């Protein structure tokens, strides 16, 4: 299947042009706005946040904090990382493994003041001490959580539904737009949304015409879910598989994590196996199991050496760039002709550079024993 690169190049050109116009709004004054979200310029606006709350915020604030999984990631996507004045404790941990491109590209986050524990367990006093003009907060279970934090701090709280690239895509796009509106980065928000649209469209265009008989059966094991897991941990509708129209063998509710019985995996007998490398944090890892368990070793994919490593994307919730990078790599394995023009590592760095400002693929690959986007040797 032949593909013209002209359309994608044109789209990316428009996106990059928009990106150059965006960023965290600079102000000539270094004085922090008073606690409570007042802006000395008097420029305020009222927005509707992801929970349907009406929130009045300073226009284009330059001092914000991000609470909850993925919140700081979206700030980075919007090229407003310099606006962050405090972080939750996950940004301060030293880990052997780390699959958060936004954090790898912004090591300065670890030096910022602490606002509380990870997963949105904020300490209001610490938040106030950072003197932000706005608090962005993801994964609020209900509006009252945001209301309570706003009442305790006197600082406007903008609640966001994190969303994903699949069934909750509308939530993701809305969150980017709301955050972009508050920050004055609307153009950058639209550029990010358009970029993901162009990637998913490209993946589908490359694979939708492949005959069913030419689609090998696949399984993904070792997927992270609130921590590392062994080979039986999977996602029945693993997003990178969905984006390349793969023949997935696992069954289950859409987008749900699942632990599949070993007997069922063996019965599936996939032609190609992928391993989420977050599993390397646990012992035995999925790689160990495939190598050492005779039942797994007898499977077709293992016998044929068709076992490959992919980057984790469930790491302090979903890293959307890694979802896309994994999808392109998986495409090169399943459909070599359709992806003959793709170098997976280079494509990953193109994606990461656009989203977080740095080509961090090699850094992540080293953290995961250089097994990503490679055939895994089980001997």
The H-level CATH homologous superfamily of the largest domain, spelled out, is Nitrogenase molybdenum iron protein domain
Largest sheet: 4 strands, parallel
Query: Which class of secondary structure composition applies to the elements?
Result: alpha/beta
**Arithmetic mean of pLDDT:** 88
CATH topology title of the largest domain: Rossmann fold
CA gyration radius, whole angstroms? 22 Å
* Secondary-structure element pattern, one letter each: HEEEHEHEEHEHEHHEEHEEHEHHHEHHH
Number of domains: 2
Oligomer: single chain
CATH second-level architecture of the largest domain:
3-Layer(aba) Sandwich
Number of strands: 14
* Helix share, percent: 25-40%
Separation of the first and last Cα atoms:
35 Å
CATH class of the largest domain: Alpha Beta
Q: Could you describe the 3D structure shown?
A:
This protein is an alpha/beta fold and 379 residues long. It has two domains: 7-196, Nitrogenase molybdenum iron protein domain (Rossmann fold, 3-Layer(aba) Sandwich); 215-367, Nitrogenase molybdenum iron protein domain (Rossmann fold). The protein has 15 helices and 14 strands. It has a four-stranded parallel β-sheet. A three-stranded parallel β-sheet has the order 3-7-8, sandwiched between helices. Helix 1 runs antiparallel to helix 7, helix 7 packs parallel to helix 13 (320-334) and helix 13 (320-334) runs antiparallel to helix 14 (344-356). The two termini are 35 Å apart. 47% of the residues are buried. Residues 1-40 have low confidence and may be disordered.
């Amino acid at each position: 299947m032949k593909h013209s690169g002209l359309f994608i190049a044109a789209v990316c050109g428009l996106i990059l042009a928009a990106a150059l116009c965006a960023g965290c709004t600079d102000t000539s004054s270094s004085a922090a706005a008073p606690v409570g979200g007042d802006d000395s310029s008097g420029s305020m606006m009222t927005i509707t946040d992801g929970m349907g709350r009406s929130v009045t915020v300073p226009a284009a604030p330059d001092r914000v904090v991000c609470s909850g999984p993925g919140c700081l990631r979206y700030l980075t996507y919007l090229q407003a990382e310099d606006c962050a004045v405090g972080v939750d404790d996950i940004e301060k941990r030293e880990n052997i493994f780390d699959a958060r491109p936004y954090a790898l590209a912004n090591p300065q986050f670890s030096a910022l003041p602490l606002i509380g524990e990870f997963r949105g367990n904020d300490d209001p006093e610490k938040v106030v001490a950072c003197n932000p003009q706005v608090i962005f907060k993801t994964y609020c279970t209900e509006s009252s959580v945001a209301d309570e934090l706003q009442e305790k701090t006197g600082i406007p709280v903008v609640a966001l539904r994190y969303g994903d690239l699949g069934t909750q895509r509308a939530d993701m796009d809305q969150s980017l737009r709301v955050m972009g509106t508050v920050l004055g980065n609307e153009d950058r928000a639209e550029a990010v949304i358009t970029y993901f649209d162009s990637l998913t469209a490209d993946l589908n265009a490359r694979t939708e015409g492949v005959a069913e008989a030419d689609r090998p059966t696949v399984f993904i094991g070792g997927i992270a879910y609130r921590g590392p897991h062994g080979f039986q941990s999977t996602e029945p509708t693993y997003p990178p598989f969905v984006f390349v129209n793969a023949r997935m063998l696992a069954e289950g509710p859409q987008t749900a994590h699942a632990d599949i019985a070993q007997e069922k995996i063996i019965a599936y007998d996939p032609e190609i196996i992928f391993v989420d490398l977050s599993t390397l944090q646990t012992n035995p890892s999925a790689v160990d199991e495939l190598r050492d368990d005779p039942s797994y070793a007898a499977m077709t994919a293992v016998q044929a050496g068709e076992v490959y490593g992919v980057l984790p994307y469930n790491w302090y919730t979903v890293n959307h760039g890694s979802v896309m990078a994994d999808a392109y790599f998986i495409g090169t394995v399943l459909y070599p002709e359709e992806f003959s023009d793709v170098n997976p590592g280079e494509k990953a760095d193109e994606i990461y550079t656009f989203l977080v400002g740095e080509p961090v693929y090699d850094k992540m690959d080293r953290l995961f024993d250089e097994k990503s986007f490679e055939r895994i040797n089980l001997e």
